[in-house]
């Protein structure tokens, strides 16, 4: 069966971790100098990115599978997110 998503779950987790570390590396020094709005914005950015990555992972396996039963009937299985 072929993979239906561009990134494997481990790769997606690595990308998210890299984004979080990069954003924190930039934002935390500003917080140490009293500019707390920048780390808060960075936290919001990482939270939204995490939510979007979650939606991506939820729909990564979406697709259809078409098969014939032994009686000759056509069977179509549709998978969308949590619904099958």
Count the domains: 1
Please state the structural category. alpha+beta
Q: Report the total helices.
A: 2
Strand order of the largest sheet: 1-2
Describe what you observe in this structure.
The protein is an alpha+beta fold and about 80 residues long. The protein has one domain. It is about 55% helix and about 15% strand. The chain has a two-stranded antiparallel ribbon with strand order 1-2. It is rod-shaped and about 75 Å long. It starts with 8 loop residues before the first helix and ends in a 5-residue tail after the last strand. The model has no long low-confidence stretch (mean pLDDT about 85).
Summarize the structure.
Helix 1 packs antiparallel against helix 2 (37-59). This protein has helices at residues 9-32, 37-59; strands at residues 63-68, 74-79.
Question: How is the secondary structure organized here?
Answer:
Layout: H1 9-32, H2 37-59, E1 63-68, E2 74-79
Antiparallel strand pairs: 1-2
Helix pairs in contact: 1-2
Keywords:
2 strands; alpha+beta; rod-shaped; two-stranded antiparallel sheet; 84 residues; 2 helices; 56% helix
